[in-house]
Write a structure and sequence with these properties.
With 474 residues, the protein is α+β, with helices and mostly antiparallel strands. Helix content is 16%, strand content 18%. The protein has 3 domains: 97 residues, no CATH class; 182 residues, no CATH class; 117 residues, no CATH class. The relative contact order is 0.12.
């Protein structure tokens, strides 16, 4: 399954970097990463190999991520005098972490088995200095504890709408009883003129697009004479106010727990000087940022951003999209940039776009709904389970891209719940611990028609698919 453990700086992503699929999926976008990034692994695991590392003498198990031919798995495993198994992943074991590297255009994640934290340093050095890989640490070696979402990060927290009294000295809110209501979601915004952090939890938001501390563009704190121009200063202040009202501030502000991700709105001087050109192009609507998801203005205190019906809108939630885009377009012009500079990058959401446009092929490992109604998938336990029409789009992120037209049945495991295993759920029968997101109110989903093809999509957590293929109903 795909790892969300480490992310690259989206504002400085080039086409060549796509080869390792390292991604920051920060919704308002533009997060950063460390110098050595953990690749986002293909979700398919074609087999595994158990062996002893010939250098350390310690046991390891390597997963073969991607469409590995069986003969290549057997050949690689034989090189390590190991025992291979085709079609299954490594079993659950205590691990220090995994060493990820590429071979022949495919990926290997070699899991260092053990529970002695004293071995963390040598395991990392062996991976990165001698093996040429990238070490993805488990919690025992400093990785972030996971509650079952995979990839070493907290489980994605679904958005909730919170309503509270206005802060002292602020006017009544626009909702019933003068309340201020705000979606706790990376695409959410509180009422214009208020601060998002005063009315919603950034902790929830940071599970939705795990942020990563990153440096801003060079010389971002320089004096900027443009701020002395009253017209420019007014627009600059308006844009900052809009961003402070949006969830972007959760990662792009100095209050972020590990420090801001790339640019930050409350930096001294002109906050635009922290941007890389690609981030500016997203703000200008020059790159399609639909894949990050959006609320309608009616749901989001009048704020909007890029949607499937308005793909040319800014990535930044705003009450005046034309004004927002114009500000970023002017900055790009000031830097001598034109649309032609971004001609090779139509879409900006990285793996979110890859997932959005993914089209499944036929299941090949017995996945699907059996005659007895049991759902069978491969790749591990799941938090999100979909059965859809064959032509349905692949689901991505809430609030508007996670329930595609053609969805027949969707089950979610609550963020505090335990992921479920293949073969434990019957089609149309909701287990008590799970939430049925569609159809609503525990309505019975449409029956499957024998001989008809359907799309099964199962993921370990949001955008971490373990199975996504077409099966034929028995």
């Amino acid at each position: 399954m795909k790892s969300r453990h480490s992310f690259f700086r989206a504002t400085n992503w080039t086409i060549s970097q796509r080869s390792v699929l390292s991604v920051t999926i920060l919704g308002c976008v533009l997060a950063g990463c460390s110098a050595k990034e953990v690749p986002l692994l293909p979700e398919e695991i074609s087999g595994h190999c158990n062996y002893k590392n010939r250098f350390s003498g310690e046991p390891e198990c390597r997963n073969y991520h991607g469409d590995w031919p069986s003969e290549k798995i057997l050949e690689d495993c034989a090189d390590w005098d190991g025992t291979a198994d085709i079609g299954t992943p490594c079993g659950e074991q205590n691990i220090l972490g995994q060493c990820i590297f590429e071979k022949d255009g495919l990926y290997i994640a070699a899991r260092a088995i053990g529970d002695n934290a004293d071995n963390c340093g040598s395991t990392r050095r062996g991976c990165e200095l001698f093996g040429g890989g990238v070490f993805d640490a488990a919690p025992i070696c400093g990785g972030v504890e996971s509650s079952g979402g995979g990839g070493g990060l907290p489980v994605f927290q679904q958005p909730i709408k919170v309503c509270s009294d206005p802060k002292p000295g602020e006017p009544p809110g626009k909702s019933d009883g003068g309340k201020v209501c705000t979606w706790e979601m990376i695409s959410g915004a509180t009422e214009e003129g208020r601060h998002f952090e005063d009315y919603a939890s950034c902790d929830r938001v940071r599970t939705q697009r795990p942020y990563y501390k990153a440096g801003a563009a060079a010389d971002n704190l320089r004096d900027d004479p443009r701020l002395k121009d009253p017209t420019y200063a007014k627009e600059h202040a308006w844009v900052m106010s809009q961003i402070r009202s949006a969830a972007c501030i959760c990662c792009h502000g100095s209050s972020a727990p590990q420090g801001p991700s790339n640019w930050f709105v409350d930096q001294p001087g002109n906050f635009l000087n922290g941007f890389f050109p690609r981030g500016l192009a997203m703000g200008a609507g020059w790159l399609d940022t639909v894949g990050f998801g959006a609320y309608t203005p009616q749901e989001n205190n009048g704020f909007t951003r890029a949607t499937p019906s308005n793909p040319g809108h800014s990535i930044f939630p705003t009450t005046d999209d034309a004004r927002m885009r114009r500000f970023f377009e002017n900055e790009l012009a000031y830097r001598g940039k034109t649309r032609a500079d971004f001609a090779n990058e139509k879409y900006a959401a990285g793996p979110l776009d890859e997932q959005r446009f993914f089209r499944p092929s036929a299941c090949t490992r017995g996945e699907g709904v059996r005659a007895d109604g049991l759902l069978i998938w491969k790749g591990g336990n799941a938090r999100y389970i979909y059965v859809m029409e064959a032509a349905a789009a692949s689901p991505t992120v809430p609030p508007n891209l996670d329930l595609p037209e053609g969805t027949l049945w969707r089950l979610d495991v609550p963020s505090t719940g335990t992921p479920v295993a293949s073969g434990t759920i019957k089609y149309g029968v909701r287990p008590a611990a799970l939430t049925q997101k569609f159809p609503v109110s525990d309505a019975v989903p449409a029956p499957l028609q024998s001989g008809k093809q359907y799309y099964m999509y199962v993921s370990a957590d949001l955008i971490q698919p373990v199975t996504r293929c077409l099966f034929t109903a028995p």
